[in-house]
Write a structure and sequence with these properties.
Elements lengths: L1 E11 L1 E2 L2 E7 L7 E3 L2 E3 L6 H13 L1 E22 L5 E21 L11 E6 L10 H12 L15
Parallel strand pairs: 1-7
Antiparallel strand pairs: 1-5, 2-3, 3-4, 3-8, 6-7
Length: about 160
């Protein structure tokens, strides 16, 4: 089975009881809320990745103020390959996601055109559990709330000892 490693950087931007999220079309066309961010380009520092991705997806210029932690995700899925991507084969996908706390330094909220997201919005923290969202949103919020010294969120349902 082919193995694929992806390093990405994401932003936790919270102010006035709201968190900045972006919306992705999601699998099967069902929109999902995601943290602004995405994959690092070859040779790009993850710090620079989160700055670039947040501006692309939300219009805001940001400054990372803290590395909250790392969330790793591993899943086997089918990837497209071959001429025009018509063939599918299983891939062991390992995502390493750095989550930064950021503050807005400029720009205006706008939506990404022609990218991986189609909407950016401030969501009330209390409303997040009712949103259709990717698990990284919850992991990012746990990192933001807990600020674990080792940078690893407490898995849901685990004792916080």
């Amino acid at each position: 089975m082919r193995r694929k490693l992806r390093v990405a950087a994401y932003a936790m931007c919270v102010r006035d009881g709201q968190v900045l999220l972006a919306r992705s079309p999601g699998p099967g066309g069902v929109p999902e809320w995601v943290l602004p961010g995405g994959g690092a380009e070859h040779g790009e520092d993850p710090y620079d990745t989160v700055v670039r991705e947040v501006e692309e997806e939300t219009g805001y210029r940001v400054e990372p103020t803290c590395l909250l932690g790392v969330d790793a995700h591993r899943v086997t899925r089918l990837d497209h390959f071959g001429p025009r991507g018509l063939l599918r084969r299983p891939v062991d996908h390992h995502g390493v996601r750095l989550v930064y706390e950021v503050r807005i330094t400029g720009g205006d909220l706008r939506f990404e055109v022609g990218g991986s997201t189609d909407l950016a919005a401030w969501q009330d923290l209390a409303a997040v559990p009712g949103l259709t969202r990717v698990p990284l949103v919850d992991a990012g919020l746990r990192l933001w709330r807990e600020r674990p010294p080792a940078g690893r969120p407490t898995p849901p349902g685990s004792p916080k000892g």
